[in-house]
Amino acid sequence: MRNLRVFVLFMLGTLLCLGCDKIRTEGEYLRKIPIYSTLGEQRKMNIEIQEPIEFKQTGKIYSYKDYLFIMELHKGIHIYNNANPSKPVAVGLLPVLGNMDIAVKDDVLYADSYFDLLSFDIKDATKPKLIDRQRNRFSRSTFAFGTVSSNVNSDELEIIVDYKDSLVTQEYIRTYYPQQGLDMYENSFSEGGSGTGGSMARFTVAKDHLFLLDVKNLHLMDITNPSKPRYLKDIELFPGVETLFPYKDKLFVGSTTGMVIFDISNPAQPEKLSTYSHVRACDPVVVDDNYAYVTLRTGNSCGGSNNQLEVIDIKDPTKPQFVSEHRMSNPHGLALVGKYLYICDGWDGLKSFEAEDVMKIGEKRLEHLKLGQAYDIIPGPKSLIVVHSTAVEQFDYSDPKKLKKLSSINRSNLN
């Protein structure tokens, strides 16, 4: 037990101190102190919808029917009724601790919770009901900073479930969270019955199957019966896999070192077609019939020194070929809608481009909106949904050359 806690503390300090600010002057200082629990204790707790609360930090986003889901570190999933994107209404908080990603199929929401995969019935999204928990579905957990192995009782693993502020009067290190673990870690309109995630997603639904990424593995679940996900197998990839993007009968996996293309014509038996390699950098991907659009950026855990958009010819998916590159500031998530490309360019905000000529995308910028640190985007049926460091913004994009702001969900806006 002691060894587990020491390991967790070591890994936590190593990761979070990438964003540390060391204070050397005298006086009182505010320090964040971790609150611990065991995974066994968390598994025994009822998970029921709570009253809406202000979110302190935006996370990944997901859209399903008339609802918008916003994930937050150490809090859970904020649910909004988004039937009218001009006036989203807060429904409540689903306190799924240890959650980083979700996906939805036929009114069943799938969410990771530390090492476990949870399924919720959301026929009534205002009252989600937990219907299944698969323990230790993931071998690794970003929140627990550990690995589940056959000789470890995961119920005894100590995890950090929250932080409290404490005044101290000595030299200390103040820790800042990475943006939703962005540097640790489907964007076309989705198939019937499923929702839509951003280009930073690690969960996706395609052909009645659920594909899940952890640190280096692709987990495959059959969800022909959505309420009873059936584990099929794991496909070992390599450390640094980050994002999933399904398109027709293909699945594109973005990583810190390249893009992997799978044929999922038979979704129960994905066939690896090719690997496209690039310099080390974080790597979200979106595609159309002919090209893959990849954003490469520098980051704390991604390494590398490139901040750019790369276009790759995938007409022959067994032989992807580099086409062009376009300089960006620090690009994160992106969305492709017809011949228009929207890129979340970090602290440089949201940028839109005409992408009909892939050789001249960088020269065809249409708009540049200064937001917070923009990092993911969903082109929904009613609005373009953009998440940045302090808010989730929605835009009317019926005229793709001129976005019109509809609403903003921020820390103090619960409607």
Strand elements, count: 35
| Structural Rg | 21 Å
Say what oligomer this is.
single chain
The main β sheet shows up as: 5 strands, antiparallel
* Helix share bin: under 10%
Give a short overview.
Strands 6-5-4-3-15 form a 5-stranded antiparallel beta sheet, with no helix packed on it. Strands 7-8-9-10 form a 4-stranded antiparallel beta sheet, with no helix packed on it. The chain has a 4-stranded antiparallel beta sheet with strand order 16-17-18-19, with no helix packed on it. The protein has helices at residues 2-16, 39-44; strands at residues 20-23, 29-38, 61-64, 67-72, 76-81, 89-94, 102-105, 108-113, 116-121, 129-134, 140-141, 146-147, 158-168, 172-175, 196-197, 203-206, 209-213, 217-222, 230-236, 241-247, 250-255, 258-263, 271-277, 285-287, 291-296, 308-313, 321-327, 334-337, 340-344, 350-354, 365-369, 376-379, 384-387, 391-396, 404-410.
List keywords for this structure.
single chain; 415 residues; mainly beta; 5% helix; globular
Give the helices and strands, then pairings.
Blueprint: H1 2-16, E1 20-23, E2 29-38, H2 39-44, E3 61-64, E4 67-72, E5 76-81, E6 89-94, E7 102-105, E8 108-113, E9 116-121, E10 129-134, E11 140-141, E12 146-147, E13 158-168, E14 172-175, E15 196-197, E16 203-206, E17 209-213, E18 217-222, E19 230-236, E20 241-247, E21 250-255, E22 258-263, E23 271-277, E24 285-287, E25 291-296, E26 308-313, E27 321-327, E28 334-337, E29 340-344, E30 350-354, E31 365-369, E32 376-379, E33 384-387, E34 391-396, E35 404-410
